[in-house]
From TrEMBL:
<dbReference type="Pfam" id="PF00005">
    <property type="entry name" value="ABC_tran"/>
</dbReference>
<protein>
    <submittedName>
        <fullName>Putative ABC transporter ATP-binding protein</fullName>
    </submittedName>
</protein>
<keyword id="KW-1278">Translocase</keyword>
<comment type="similarity">
    <text>Belongs to the ABC transporter superfamily.</text>
</comment>
<dbReference type="GO" id="GO:0005524">
    <property type="term" value="F:ATP binding"/>
</dbReference>
<dbReference type="InterPro" id="IPR017871">
    <property type="entry name" value="ABC_transporter-like_CS"/>
</dbReference>
<keyword id="KW-0067">ATP-binding</keyword>
<dbReference type="GO" id="GO:0016887">
    <property type="term" value="F:ATP hydrolysis activity"/>
</dbReference>
<keyword id="KW-0547">Nucleotide-binding</keyword>
<dbReference type="GO" id="GO:0042626">
    <property type="term" value="F:ATPase-coupled transmembrane transporter activity"/>
</dbReference>
<dbReference type="GO" id="GO:0043190">
    <property type="term" value="C:ATP-binding cassette (ABC) transporter complex"/>
</dbReference>
<keyword id="KW-0813">Transport</keyword>
<dbReference type="InterPro" id="IPR015856">
    <property type="entry name" value="ABC_transpr_CbiO/EcfA_su"/>
</dbReference>
<keyword id="KW-1003">Cell membrane</keyword>
<dbReference type="InterPro" id="IPR050095">
    <property type="entry name" value="ECF_ABC_transporter_ATP-bd"/>
</dbReference>
<keyword id="KW-0472">Membrane</keyword>
<dbReference type="InterPro" id="IPR003593">
    <property type="entry name" value="AAA+_ATPase"/>
</dbReference>
Length: 255
């Protein structure tokens, strides 16, 4: 697979913050179009630093990042930021307009979409996350799980190449967790999911990457990585008590 054919291609990415803290030490990672990959690792591993390089928020280090064949850099920055959609852990960081419809329309309207084309794009994004019936509601009147789905819609409406999810299952009740999993499985996009929720990673992502100490220390099938108790212990990753990844079976909620 080449940078031109992959959704994401990172080569020898290294980065140090102005205070001298070295966060990444030569990361190599390639993600194919349509893959769903979990990015695992302890706090301080460099996961956020890596993610912020994907849309050019951070830069200036060594190495290269390509999104759908485009190098991340100033000449392509607007297109890169359209192609990389980041859904934050707290949906309130993304929702700030008077209504759900206004929030979802904000991005494409800013890109110049108007009229029926804008309405159709917003409706399609809300349909995709099961929130079309809430378009005229104020976001702060919604449940946390509903707000997370609206935040997802604000990203999907831009038709991204890569969807980056920061701890998508956090603070969700079991029903909302299952509903979000069904939505994420249905999306025809590449997914990079940053999470400490190892069972959710196994449910949604056939492949996982462990980032620890600024380097990738493991990359392979999620089930195989999660059954390596010594690997998990060495990199401060823990499965919930009683959860056996070797015996777990992925379930899909009936529609």
């Amino acid at each position: 697979m080449t940078p031109a054919t992959a959704s994401l291609h990172i080569s020898r990415l290294a980065f140090a913050y102005p205070d001298g803290h070295q966060a990444l030490f030569g990361v190599d990672l390639t993600v194919a179009r349509g893959e769903r990959v979990a990015l695992l690792g302890p706090n301080g591993a460099g996961k956020t630093t890596l993610v912020l390089h994907l849309n050019g928020i951070l830069g200036g280090g060594a190495g290269e990042v390509h999104i759908a064949g485009l190098p991340v850099g100033r000449p392509h920055l607007a297109e890169i930021r359209r192609r990389v959609g980041i859904v934050f852990q707290d949906p309130d960081d993304q929702l700030f307009m008077p209504t759900v419809r206004d929030d979802v329309a904000f991005g494409p309207a800013g890109a110049g979409l108007r009229g029926d084309a804008l309405d159709a794009r917003v409706t399609a994004a809300l349909d995709r996350v099961g929130m079309a019936g809430y378009a005229d509601r104020p976001p702060h009147h919604l449940s946390f799980g509903q707000r997370r789905r609206v935040a997802l819609a604000t990203v999907l409406v831009m038709e991204p190449e890569i969807l980056v999810l920061d701890e998508p299952s956090s603070n969700l009740d079991p029903a909302a967790r299952r509903e979000l999993a069904d939505i994420l499985r249905s999306l025809p996009v590449t997914v990079l999911m940053v999470t400490h929720d190892l069972p959710y990673a196994m449910e949604l992502c056939p492949r996982s990457v462990i980032l620890s100490g600024g380097v990738i220390v493991a990359d392979g099938p999620t089930r195989e990585l999660l059954t390596d108790a010594e690997l998990l212990h060495r990199h401060r990753l823990e499965l919930p008590y009683g959860f056996d990844p070797a015996a777990a079976v992925r379930t899909v909620r009936p529609r």
